[in-house]
Amino acid sequence: MRYGEIGISAGMASLAVFFYSLATFQQEMNPADPGPAFYPRLISLLLVVFAVAQMAISWRQNGLAGEKQGKEGAGRLPYIYVGGTLVISLIYLLLFKGAGYFWTTAGFLLALMLLGGVRNWLVLSSVALGYSLVTYYLFGQVLMVPLP
After folding, report:
1. Is the CB of residue 92 less than 8 Å from the CB of residue 108?
2. Angle between the 78-99 and 3-22 helix axes, to the nearest 10 degrees?
3. What tens digit of pLDDT does each residue of 58-94 get?
4. What is the H or E stretch that residue 131 is in?
5. Sign for the pseudo-dihedral over CA of 65, 49, 8, 81
6. Whole-structure pTM value
7. Alpha-carbon gap, residue 95 to 102, rounded angstroms
8. Where are the domains of the chain?
9. Contact 102/132 with Cβ under 8 angstroms?
10. 40 CB contacts (<8 Å, ≥6 apart)?
């Protein structure tokens, strides 16, 4: 079974639910306007939908190809992946302000990909550093969002 994908997806879905609960911004000027909480809630709902879809796809692929692949990852339980995802996310949040966006995001992506079973270091480093660089440029330079 693909415990890594299922576990990480479950962890991301639970973080999205938590994030949704934090988006309680109120707007009193224009009641017809969705307000500042609309975007964070929309993103967290989409994250839940895609995480559940990823869990279903991973579960289904195991059912269709489980006999052919054997007992891949049978020794690790799914709660290790969920817990690992949550711990890695909390460490990311704690280090974010001090270490800065670029390095904490690259480390976060490396850790999640390692937890998910990616072992090709070229893929690990290029995805983590590339994503961090592109998003840092997009948000920090183009959209001028202040990043640590």
Report:
1. yes
2. 50
3. 888 765 555 455 455 455 567 788 888 899 999 999 9
4. helix 121-136
5. negative
6. 0.55
7. 11
8. 1-99, 100-148
9. yes
10. 19, 20, 22, 23
